[in-house]
Amino acid sequence: MRNILTLAGKDFRSLATSPMFCLIAALCSVMWSFTFLRSLILFAENTQATFNPGPSPTLQMTVFLTHISQINLLFVFIVPALTMRLLAEEKKLRTYDLLLTAPITATEIALGKFLGAFGVILILVALSFLYPLATYPIAHFSFPPLLAAYLGVILVASTYVAVGVFASSLTQSVVLSVVMGLVFNLFLWFLSQGAESATGLYMTSVLEQISIGDHFMAFIRGSIRLKSIMFLLSCTGLFVFLTQRVVESSRWR
Amino acid sequence: MIQVKELSKFYGDRQAVKNLSFTVNKGEVVGFLGPNGAGKSTTMKILTGYMAPTSGTVQISGFDIFEDPIEVKKRIGYLPETPPVYLDMTVQRYLEFCAKLKGVSSEAIDSSVDAALQKTALQQVRRRMIGNLSKGFRQRVGLAQALVSDPEILILDEPTVGLDPKQVAEMRTLIKELKGKHTIVLSTHILPEVQASCDKVIIINEGQIIAEDQIQGLSNRMAGGGHLKIRVLRKADQVAEELKRIEGVVDSSSTGNYLEVKTDGRDQVVEEISKKVVSLDAGLIELQTSTLSLEDIFIQLTDSTEKS
Ligand SMILES: Nc1ncnc2c1ncn2[C@@H]1O[C@H](COP(=O)(O)OP(=O)(O)OP(=O)(O)O)[C@@H](O)[C@H]1O
Ligand SMILES: [Mg+2]
Questions:
Q1: B20-43 pLDDT, tens per residue?
Q2: Ligand 1: which atom is nearest the Cα of residue B40?
């Protein structure tokens, strides 16, 4: 445990203080400020101007949904960019030698790398959470669905991080690492596209079960389903495990 | 302390290490000597548990590298060919990180880092970014990293490569100071380095041990043949011919005003040669006895292994 935290702490610190992260965090907040305010104003105009006979749209399903889908979309690209250096650069700069000759296991290396990057992503998640939070004083909404949605964000982000760390473990090249991470993330999303267009009931239901999109949407709608939690956690676990295999295998080449 | 038995390593179908067996006793300083591509780094990487051999066993302090890799790694400090430093960390923070990784207890971290900094004379740069340090300093940081957990065994892969002459001398003094406290295995392709710091030398070429000897034995071997360089003003060709007739001269040849003479190594022969050159009035201006270079020893050793 101590080894994992040592590794995670080092990567967390160097990532969180890197110019790359500061730039990303700044750009994100600029973007969120702009889009969040815009959809909030739109929402306000809509609810005032039009007299809506049906159930009025909630803040959750309009403003927050846009916000959270946007976070998700951003993370598909940002997370690989933040995780790309984790193992690829260690290999390139030969500091990987230090890790492999230290009295730590491959599992500890994989988990340490994952946790370090995950911690940094949580900063971004917290940053994005400030926006809905800031609306609370002006528009009272129910908290639990928002929290459920954020649980979804955190779980999806952890999957992206695990994917990114895995991509980084496969290569020495930082560029290749970021490209692979992106491709893997997109692939996970396209599985859900496949679910919509797949012919045959059986195929559709299988693809639905394994598509990130479906599970994520359930969280955004405010429902916490055990199978969705389990699914995203096992995705994360799978990629951390694959990373562990790759690290372990580097001794055998 | 270190027992290596029939170690082999293939990279694909290229064999880098062939059936290496040797032992290193506690407290010994052993030098691995060999030309580029001999398999020195490969052997060291296997000893540290960085990679697995294709076949053969390695035991370190009684632990098998396969069965107890963690126990083995706890006992080893390793300086790879390229110092494994993070360029975006300060020296102090980097060493703290290494100490933690190597399992130094939280209370002892500060004192271990201080001790390592002191041994490698890095106190002045402890707050500097490693990325801003020169190559020689990075090498020292790498060494401090190997020392920080005060391991029983130090494995140093070409510790003086890329250092300026002053730092090379400092590094040798440092290794001498470490002698006795640690068992040290170091690799190099520079002969004087082995003479300066090691008790025992293992010469490898193309993945095989071609000689394993105490340093004294190596010196004797080197004395076994003398090598003279002579510079004259005139009559170089004639001198070369005349010298061949002296008893004890194995060979002599001239290029321009320079003569190369090989002798059987006795001092009397050198005396005879100088007398001869003077008596021929060739204008002797330089006479140098040179010890055998590493290359010569290699050629000698590989020749003798082929013959036997
Ligand atoms: N990762 C690798 N893949 C394939 N071949 C390798 C690899 N590493 C080393 N080799 C080969 O193994 C042989 C031994 O290499 P090694 O690095 O052990 O030599 P060395 O004695 O350390 O040489 P040097 O003095 O140049 O450091 C070389 O022929 C080298 O080409
Ligand atoms: Mg080498």
A1: 999 999 888 999 888 888 899 999
A2: 21
Across the interface, of A96, A102, A253, the residue whose CB is closest to B101 is A102
Q: Which atom of ligand 1 is nearest to the CA of B81?
A: 27
Mean predicted confidence (pLDDT) in A216-242: 88
Domain-located, residue A233: yes
Binding-face residues of B in 39-98 toward A, CB within 8 A: 48-52, 70-71, 73-74, 76, 78, 80-82, 84-89, 97-98
ipTM summary value: 0.85
Q: What is the per-residue pLDDT across B135-167, written as a single tens digit (0 to 9) for each?
A: 888 988 999 999 999 999 999 998 888 788 888
Q: Is residue A50 part of a domain?
A: no
Strands B2-11 and B249-255, bridge-based pairing: unpaired
Average pLDDT score over residue span B74-79? 93
Q: Which two tokens stand for residue A106?
A: 């491959």
Tell whether A53 is covered by a domain.
no
Q: What is the pLDDT of residue A45?
A: 78
Instruction: For chain B, list the domains and their CATH numbers.
Output: 2-212 (3.40.50.300), 224-292 (3.30.70.980)
Q: What is the pLDDT of residue B245?
A: 85
Whole-number Å distance, alpha carbon B25 to ligand 2 midpoint, is 23
Write out A113-144 in H/E/C secondary structure.
HHHHHHHHHHHHHHHHHHHHHHHCCCCCCCHH
The count of structural domains within chain A is 1
Q: d(Cα B169, Cα B29) in Å, to the nearest integer?
A: 17
Atom of ligand 1 nearest to the CA of B35: 25
pLDDT band at residue A57 using 50, 70 and 90 as cut-offs:
low
Range of the domain at A19: 2-43+58-250
Q: Determine the distance separating the centroid of ligand 1 and the alpha carbon of B78, expressed in angstroms.
A: 17
Check CB contact of A204 with chain B, cutoff 8 Å. Answer: no
b vs e for B158-184, b when ≥16 Cβ sit within 10 Å of the residue's Cβ?
Answer: bbbbbbeeebbebbbebbeebbeebbb
pLDDT tens string A115-156: 999 999 999 999 999 988 888 877 777 788 888 888 999 999
Residue B13: CB atoms within 10 A of its CB come to 5
pLDDT (tens digit, 9 = 90+) per residue, B180-204?
Answer: 889 999 998 777 777 777 888 888 8
In chain B, count H helices and then E strands: 11, 14
Closest CA to ligand 1's atom 31 = B37
Distance CA B305, CA B247 (A): 28
Closest CA to B50 of A59, A48, A253, A192: A253
Give the chain B residue whose CA is nearest to the CA of A112: B101
Residues in chain A: 253
**What average pLDDT score do residues B118-147 get?**
91
Q: Is A48 within a domain?
A: no
B63 DSSP β-pair partners:
B60
